[in-house]
């Protein structure tokens, strides 16, 4: 009969299986954590640093029943080319006009008024976005 609570002599048989498993899990977790942080950093850099064009709708004027004039400001890197998309909305939120305009100017700031033709009276306008070529 063995004595209850008898322990093996320390350092005689090496690490237990539980200690080896814990160490392996710590290594795998650390590698996966570093990989996830690197992936998030890469996505963040390309999302923020990769955008060479940004636009802002300064104001709009409901010029006529079939037209909206939109004042846009586009900031971009020197020499960047691309386009912006603007749409006009009716009182119920339906799209009544859409226009894409290109910008090829060499300067890093483009300030332009764009006329959007509409199928019925518009009540607002919005900038959907700007994209570089």
Topology:
Blueprint: H1 17-48, E1 53-64, E2 67-76, E3 82-89, E4 95-103, E5 109-117, E6 124-132
Q: Percentage of helical residues?
A: 10-25%
Q: Determine the structural class based on helices, strands and strand pairing.
A: alpha+beta
Q: Total number of helical segments?
A: 1
Widest sheet: strand ordering: 1-2-5
Report a brief summary of the structure.
This protein has 133 residues and is α+β, with helices and mostly antiparallel strands.
Describe the 3D structure:
This protein is α+β, with helices and mostly antiparallel strands and 133 residues long. 24% of the residues lie in helices and 43% in strands. The protein has one helix and six strands. It has one helix at 17-48; strands at residues 53-64, 67-76, 82-89, 95-103, 109-117, 124-132. A three-stranded antiparallel β-sheet has the order 1-2-5, with no helix packed on it. A three-stranded antiparallel β-sheet has the order 4-3-6, with no helix packed on it. Strand 3 (82-89) and strand 4 form a beta hairpin. It starts with 16 loop residues before the first helix and ends with a strand. The mean pLDDT is 85.
List keywords for this structure.
133 residues; 3-stranded antiparallel β-sheet; 1 helix; elongated
């Amino acid at each position: 009969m063995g004595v209850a609570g008898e322990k093996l002599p320390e350092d005689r048989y090496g690490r237990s299986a539980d200690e080896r498993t814990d160490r392996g899990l710590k290594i795998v977790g650390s590698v996966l954590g570093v990989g996830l942080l690197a992936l998030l950093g890469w996505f963040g850099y390309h999302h923020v640093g990769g955008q060479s064009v940004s636009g802002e709708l300064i104001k709009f004027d409901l010029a006529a029943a079939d037209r909206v004039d939109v004042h846009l400001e586009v900031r971009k890197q020197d020499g960047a080319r691309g386009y912006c998309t603007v749409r006009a909305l009716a009182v119920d939120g339906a799209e009544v006009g859409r226009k894409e305009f290109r910008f090829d100017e060499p300067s890093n700031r483009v300030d332009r008024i764009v006329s959007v033709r509409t199928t019925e009276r518009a009540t607002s306008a919005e900038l959907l976005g700007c994209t570089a070529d």
